[in-house]
């Protein structure tokens, strides 16, 4: 190689990675992260590993660790298009902590991962501030995270987020199919909107219709973008409180995420039992009907993709249903009776879901028709 053939001097910065920007982002987010730390967190922000004092687990007879990991899906595209980044953290936290709450586990520690094409400190800090604020609501410590700059793989303003949580539940308090009985009552807990699932469908509908995110939609009472960016409701603290209410006699929870209400409820029912769910027991919030009518989306497809206004489901004993509804109302969560648990008669059809996502569970029969405003 001659001198003239020698490459120009290449640095990490010229390759598109700005480590100084990453350091500035950490400084901007440190205070928000620290607010999620109780005395159990050791070492603060910036260590190679997050440390959590688990001495309290000595008081458990048989502590079971529960873990979950997830992302936010294509909802991040809405945040990027609107240049609003401080709410997407609620979507991330809700997706993971409310998955482990399904089995009655208390979330202890969470970590996050942000991959981006270019570190913009203020933007990354906004994302993490949102994650930290949601962790405070959920009562979980944000003990670590990573921001990775991937120039050439992601566009300069692109990013994606993921997170993982670990929690604990006493084995005797584990919720799930084993506790569900014939005659139990199925309760719905309202969602705050679309939450974080089905955005590929929603975004395609918006694209085909040619609507802009700043379009005012009378049925929604605000712009389309504001509605689509509505944060996921984080249920963890409220549903753990309900699970500890002996009068409510909670048997199982289901987190209504991808796949819709029936598919997710079927995962927490035992083989041989079926939930009969009345579609007319609630009014579908306007955003779902807007998506349906705007895109000509069949109800079957909508039902199997979006939560349609039900974010979580609780199964209680018949005697505990009223107490559970009162408990949820006292915590500001709208809830109502969806249906009941009975024997699975083996019937098939478009209104029946039996098991889901690899789980050989019970069945859910959807009855009636949806009500819209």
TrEMBL record:
Belongs to the AIR synthase family. The keyword ATP-binding applies. Its main location: cytoplasm. Residues 181-348 form the PurM-like C-terminal domain. Pfam families: AIRS, AIRS_C. Its EC number is 6.3.3.1. Signal peptide: none annotated. It catalyses: 2-formamido-N(1)-(5-O-phospho-beta-D-ribosyl)acetamidine + ATP = 5-amino-1-(5-phospho-beta-D-ribosyl)imidazole + ADP + phosphate + H(+). GO terms for cellular component: cytosol. It is found in: Cytoplasm. SUPFAM superfamilies: PurM C-terminal domain-like, PurM N-terminal domain-like. This is Phosphoribosylformylglycinamidine cyclo-ligase. GO terms for molecular function: ATP binding; phosphoribosylamine-glycine ligase activity; phosphoribosylformylglycinamidine cyclo-ligase activity. It comes from the Bacteria. Keywords: ATP-binding, Cytoplasm, Ligase, Nucleotide-binding, Purine biosynthesis. GO terms for biological process: 'de novo' IMP biosynthetic process; adenine biosynthetic process. Residues 53-169 form the PurM-like N-terminal domain.
């Amino acid at each position: 190689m001659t001198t003239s053939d020698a490459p120009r001097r290449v640095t990490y910065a010229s390759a598109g990675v700005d480590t100084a920007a990453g350091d500035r982002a950490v400084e901007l987010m440190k205070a928000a992260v620290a607010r999620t730390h109780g005395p159990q967190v050791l070492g603060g922000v910036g260590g190679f590993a997050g440390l959590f004092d688990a001495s309290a687990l000595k008081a458990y007879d048989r502590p079971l660790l529960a873990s979950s990991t997830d992302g936010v899906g294509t909802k991040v595209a809405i945040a990027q298009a609107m240049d609003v980044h401080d709410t997407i953290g609620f979507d991330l936290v809700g997706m993971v902590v409310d998955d482990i709450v399904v089995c009655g586990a208390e979330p202890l520690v969470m970590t996050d991962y942000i991959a981006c094409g270019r570190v913009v400190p203020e933007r990354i800090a906004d994302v993490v501030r949102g994650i930290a604020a949601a962790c405070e609501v959920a009562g979980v410590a944000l003990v670590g995270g990573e921001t990775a700059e991937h120039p050439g793989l992601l566009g300069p303003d692109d990013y994606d987020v993921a997170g993982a949580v670990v929690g604990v539940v006493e084995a005797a308090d584990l919720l799930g199919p084993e506790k569900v009985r014939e005659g139990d009552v199925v309760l719905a807990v309202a969602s705050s909107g679309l939450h974080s699932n089905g955005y590929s469908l929603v975004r395609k509908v918006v694209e085909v219709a040619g609507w802009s995110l700043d379009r005012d939609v009378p049925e929604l009472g605000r712009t389309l973008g504001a509605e689509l960016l509505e944060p996921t409701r984080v249920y963890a603290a409220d549903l753990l409180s309900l699970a500890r209410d002996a009068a409510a006699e909670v048997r199982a929870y289901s987190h209504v995420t991808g796949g819709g209400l029936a598919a997710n409820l079927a995962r927490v029912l035992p083989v041989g039992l079926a939930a009969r769910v009345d579609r007319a027991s609630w009014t579908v919030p306007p955003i779902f009907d807007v998506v349906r009518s705007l895109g000509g989306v069949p109800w079957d497809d909508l039902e199997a993709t979006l939560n349609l206004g039900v974010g979580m489901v609780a199964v209680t004993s018949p005697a505990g249903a009223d107490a559970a509804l009162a408990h949820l109302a006292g915590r500001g969560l709208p809830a109502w009776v969806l249906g009941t648990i009975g024997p699975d008669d083996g019937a098939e059809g478009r209104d029946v879901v039996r098991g889901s996502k690899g789980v050989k569970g019970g069945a859910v029969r959807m009855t009636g028709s949806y009500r819209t405003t």
